[in-house]
Structure formats: structure tokens, C-alpha cells
Amino acid sequence: MNTSSGEPTAALYGFSSLFLKIVREQNPAAVAFAVDAPQKTFRHDRYEGYKATRAAAPDSLLRQFARLEELLRRLGLPVHRVPGFEADDVLATLARRMREEGKPALVVSGDRDLLQVASGSVSVLFTGVRGKDIVLYDAAKVTERFAVLPEQLPSFVALVGDASDNLPGVRGVGPKTAAQLVQKFHDISTLLDNLEEVSPEGVRRALAENRDRIRLNEELARLRDDVPLGDVPVASPLRLSALEQVRLLFEELEFKSLVSRLATIEDRLRSEPGA
């Protein structure tokens, strides 16, 4: 997907389309974005091979990043980007704040790691792989899928591994066995301290031989929810004046269908007090 001048826009169109869909359907009181900082994170310091197997982003995608930054600027909403941490850690921190204040919050992500924050007043809208249905997760939905609590997902991943982050799992321990172990021992530390209670012997031996790897996997898989966000607003309401600037950008990018969808949101904002 390109403009008439040849500028690639497919990823930006997909992001914009999803954003408008969420705003239209959820009508959020406030919105914020989390973006990865360009620097390596504490996870890379702990494990040199972290995400090392991921393919480099294609040039057509890299060329759209500047336009994405422009779109975020025009929206005028808080964009949290903290060196040393991933965007997922930032979202986990925002989720914790909302949960502690008892405020409902919806985290939108295609990263399965974020499912560990789905509890209390926080839900996760998992966008997943392109072409598949978007799924709304609360704590019960997470447990239904993985057979563990949301906060136990890092322990589950520590055992089964995560190929996307280059975290190797324990040979012979699949999702069913991992879930049973986490259900019984709750976390990795307790599991490894009580290996004599694990059966069969082959699983017990595999856990013992990989104990350091398992501990590191859990540490890397667990999202940090104590990221220093600074003095910027946690989130801000969407403003009509900002959407007018976004519309100009959409017209420049030849997003004709998105201009009409944006108009629906603009009409709603105009009808609200204080617009």
C-alpha cells in the first residue's frame, strides 16, 4: 500500500484504522501511547540473546516510523517512551496505576506478554496476528486460555519458553505440564525449591538441569510496573482540534476511507460539552 507518489503507508494505515475503531467503539475518556525507546533495555543487559532471533524490520516499515511520530504529535496525546524499558513495561506501569485507583482501563496490544496485566479494573484488548479476531481479555479469560492466573504467566513462559523473545523452554515441558506445575507451586522460585515433589522423574531432572535458565526466563518475561514516567500526564482526552490536524495528515497520505471514519468521531466530539 503506497501513496500515488510511492510512499509506503500500509503499517501506518493499519495502526490508524485500529485506533479509530477503538475510539469509535470504546469512546475512551482519556488515551495514552507507549513506544519503545531506541536504546537497549535492562533485559538485553541480563541476556545478550534477548530477541536476537527477530528479523530486521523491512525498509518499507522503517520509512513509516517518521510518519507515525508525526501522527502521534498531531493527536496531542501523551506518548510514554522511557529509555531502558520496553513499551510493555510502560503499559504495565500505567495499568497498575489505574488498577490502584480503581479506574477502568483498556490496554491494547498485539503482544501476549501484556495479558499478565489483565486483572481488577484492567482489561487487555489483544489484537494478535493480522487476519485473526481481536479478543478482549479479563483475568477469567486469561485463566480460561492458559489455565493459570494473569500474574502467573511469566512463570508459565519460563517453562514453555517464548520463541519471539528467544527464550528457550524446558525440553519435555509443554503448556499442559507447565500449567499444572504453576497451579501447584504458584511461581518458579517455589517450584525450584520443591523439586522433590515433582513427577515424573524426567520432568524433575529437566527442571533441575535448567534451573538457572528457568529463573532468567521468568525474570525476563515478567513486565516491570514501576517504570519512572516523569511528570507528563498519564493520559489525556482526545480533542477536536487535534483530530482536525489528523484529518489533514490522512488527506496527505490518501487515507480516504479513514477521513470519513474520522468525521464520525469529530461529530461526536462536537456534540459533547466543552468541545
In words, what does this structure look like?
The chain starts with 9 loop residues before the first helix and ends with a helix. It has 2 domains: about 180 residues, 3-Layer(aba) Sandwich (Rossmann fold), CATH 3.40.50; about 70 residues, DNA polymerase, domain 1. The chain is built from 13 helices and 5 strands. The longest helix is centred in the first third of the chain and has 17 residues. Helix content is about 50%, strand content about 5%. The chain is elongated and about 65 Å long. The strands form 2 sheets. Strands 3-4-5 form a 3-stranded mixed β-sheet. Strands 1-2 form a two-stranded parallel sheet. The protein is mainly α and about 280 residues long. α1 packs parallel to α13, α7 packs across α8 and α7 crosses α11.
Task: Please describe the topology of this protein.
Blueprint (H helix, E strand, L loop, with lengths): L9 H17 L6 E2 L7 H5 L12 H4 L2 H11 L3 E2 L6 H14 L4 E5 L12 E5 L8 E3 L1 H8 L6 H8 L14 H11 L2 H6 L7 H9 L1 H11 L18 H13 L3 H16 L4
Parallel strand pairs: 1-2, 3-4
Antiparallel strand pairs: 4-5
Helix pairs in contact: 1-13, 7-8, 7-11, 12-13
